[in-house]
Amino acid sequence: MQYPFAEKYDASDYIILNSNINPFGTSPLALKAISENLSKINMYPSREEHEKVKNQIVTKMKREYINVNEKQIVLGNGSDEVIEFFIKFGIRKFKRPKVIVGDKTFAFYEYCARSYGLDVIKVPLKNFGYDTEKIIETAKKNSPCLIMICNPINPTGKIIPKKELEDFINEIPQDSFLLSDEAYFEFAFYLNCKDWRGDDYRSALQLNIKRPVFISRTFSKAYGLAGLRLGYLICDFSDEIERHISPPFNVNYLAIKAGEKAILDIDFLQKTVENNYNGLRILESIEGAIPSWANFVLIKVKKKDIYNELKNNRILVRNMEQYGFEGFIRVSVGKIEEIEIFQKIFRKILNQ
Amino acid sequence: MQYPFAEKYDASDYIILNSNINPFGTSPLALKAISENLSKINMYPSREEHEKVKNQIVTKMKREYINVNEKQIVLGNGSDEVIEFFIKFGIRKFKRPKVIVGDKTFAFYEYCARSYGLDVIKVPLKNFGYDTEKIIETAKKNSPCLIMICNPINPTGKIIPKKELEDFINEIPQDSFLLSDEAYFEFAFYLNCKDWRGDDYRSALQLNIKRPVFISRTFSKAYGLAGLRLGYLICDFSDEIERHISPPFNVNYLAIKAGEKAILDIDFLQKTVENNYNGLRILESIEGAIPSWANFVLIKVKKKDIYNELKNNRILVRNMEQYGFEGFIRVSVGKIEEIEIFQKIFRKILNQ
Asked: Best residue in B118, B252, B265, B338 to probe A by mutation, most A CBs within 10 Å?
């Protein structure tokens, strides 16, 4: 399959709302760490340096009421790479050719699984969320080696409510591995603590689950490091993955150094999720918007070609046709002033 | 298998001669490009940005009398990743479980092949070089999907002479893919032009070969970007690999920006290979040294534990026991002043 890339423009006078990045750029602490370590980029990154980032991740997760230890974490070249580790590990363990994903969800699950020659079974979403019953039924029938979900869901912004998630994880077959991709965790969880939409979101790691689950997280979204590529996997097989699957020098040195500091920058995270909370409230006031727990909103728009008209006004949003959502756009939460400009121009185009 | 890492020390007062890195750090042009692009690391790298690096690679290779076009090149997260692309592509095409590598050569070939569950057949080296006849014979008997060689050879520093390489490539079975890993190409080729050891080294791409070959190269060695991770594969299937195997955002943004400029910095390359030429002449004057075309020298040392004694004197070299070369060390070509200190202390230890 062809990968559905977002359109990219170099011109800096575009408002970029098409790829779920952090509108404030990158944490100043991370940028400082990069500048201070430029003299060492002729040297290979090391596993010892991975350990320092893992320590910081453990500390961060304690703030999320999650107990993990460093041995459960493996770092990757973006969360894409740890998703690939999960796929490779599952194939090694089960040697079965099928995987299940949600239809019209994050394209990388299907892309990567197909690159290994796996059969991809796509279960349709139901009201923009996962149809967990249907996934369970499909899994029981097809014996997939792997099931991959994202929570919050890219691109709909919805979540699997915590009770449903707990039941789902307990009911899928024991001999299928489950990946829960929590790339947008920080937006859903930290907003949850403000009682934004009640108390319905939890990480799979915050539930009482009695089976192995694989969780992927990323520094690309809330931490603003998409370009540097740093993600991580949490599971009970991380040591085995690191010794037999992960390439020895997979994460670049500046990502390691930046990640170690970015994760300490609680002010930057706070500013990011506060802005996101306020941006979501504005975007969701638009007719056709699906309520979102992430840093983007899927919007059904009656006017055809709204995407191109926005582009003519120098605003890039995601045209969701290539994802299979005809008549939808996906708008990332930019800075409040960017969202306001988007909203104004969007309404103007609709009223023309 | 466990990956044989080099030992790493943070203390800056060690002389680091254990991992084949560039002793001059990184090209100033590359460092400038990194600093100028820090404000964009919250954004995803793009295929369009890959194209700019590919253009520069094409230009560089013209200087090497090699005609390639951008469509034959695929970029990777270090050359490790493009070696993995090669393995994945070979498995897709041939669906046979065997690969052939040289015994005691670059550990990643075996590590990565095993991570895919492949059987690895290791053909012993002969007088520190490849036994090309034996590889051909083994390939005819075993029908491997893949054969992986490095040229110059890590860790012996030897090459396959150009005539032998041409015959070898023409004689291996047509239904096995061949990877020639040319990570140390710049050291061998640019020194060759000075008539260093006659005129015996050529890239597989500089020969008259009538079958597909896969070449990997890297920015980690001569260009001093090991920590940033940038490598590339050259073959006739690059487009297919990019569309179906390469992850969409595999190379980090700063590596892209640094690579684009590093490859233009001919002065830095010249300084690096000149220093290497002079460093090799000093290191090869040591008894037990194997003549090298790369940026390191394998040395047989009668004194046991020389490795630890050097470390006590704050010089790190590679202990080659874990590679299977008992009684050998591998010494990278540092700056001339570092090599001179090494030589002095090395002789002192031997004479104790």
From this structure: B252
